[in-house]
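so my prof wants the structure for this chain in the tokens format not the other one, which i didnt know existed until like an hour ago. anyway here's the sequence
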Amino acid sequence: MEKLRILCAVMVFFMGLPVETWAEANPFEKEVNVNIGSDKEWLIKDKTVTRSGSDTSDFYHIFYDQKQLRLRITGDAEDSEASARQYQQFAVEDILVDGERLPLFQWCLINQPKHSRYLQQGLRVKQDVCVNQGEKGAFVMRLNADTLDALEKGKTLSFKIKPFRSSINVNFDISDFSEAAAKLNAKVIPVQKEQAPVTVEKKVVTPKICKANPPKDFIKIKPVDYACDDAAAKARAEANIEAVVTKERELKAKLIAENERKRKEEEAAKKAKELADIKAKEMQAALEASAAAAEKEMNAEITSKMLAVCEKKWAKGEHRCYCEKYIDKAPAGIVSDPSCATPK
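here's what i got, hopefully its the right format
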């Protein structure tokens, strides 16, 4: 009873704690904040504008091209697909402007199949308004007028993402976004008069793609693509594969341990049943032996009493049929009475 009171008191104590205290108690529930301020200048190039910043290990790039907004995570300062991080289970949990969720992001959640808790890698949103490209370290959102207006009026744009176990809040200062967007809109490529236009053909070089493959025993794990001539991308791809393989091995080890535990429990239960059956048989045999001994003792007592009665009759020279059973113990003068025989 005392232990129950203590347990109840502990539960009441923890239920009274604020949510922040619970988060501190669980290291996997902690959120990481990455703040990218206005000191990081907007890079206006061609028909796009980009702001980039980093934490200790990753670079975050917000990209706008008058049609869409894109967040990309890379391993170095270059905002390119070749340097992009590659994730197996990338989640976009929220997009907020000044702390308020964008209605367009809410629409994407509602129009994603299976669930609406977060945008999940591998699930397609209706009309591709939002695209989770975790395998390329990116998230893309097609803009509408209301969303663009919110961005131009906002101060902070926040992406809440979950590439691994912990959530990351990537907060961009967009207080000067409207100015950068205006410069982008006003940007005009000058054309020299009285000169024939020069057409420069750009040779598109498609990088050769290699794959980081999982071990043969892990066929369910998808290979990770990387540019063959990019050593850093290769290392990241192999590291991602190794992380997933390690997790799968841990799950397999837990499953084997659980199966072994169940096998031992079943074996122990079987032995316990066998032992119980043996004890039950021994108890039954003991009861039967006890009953037989009791019956024997009772018969001996009855015989003793009947002999005492018969001996008195025999001493008088009399014989009774109830003594016929004991005639072999009668004196020489007493003879058997055939009429006392039990009819067949």
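also thought this was worth mentioning. The CA atoms of residues 210 and 226 lie 5 Å apart.
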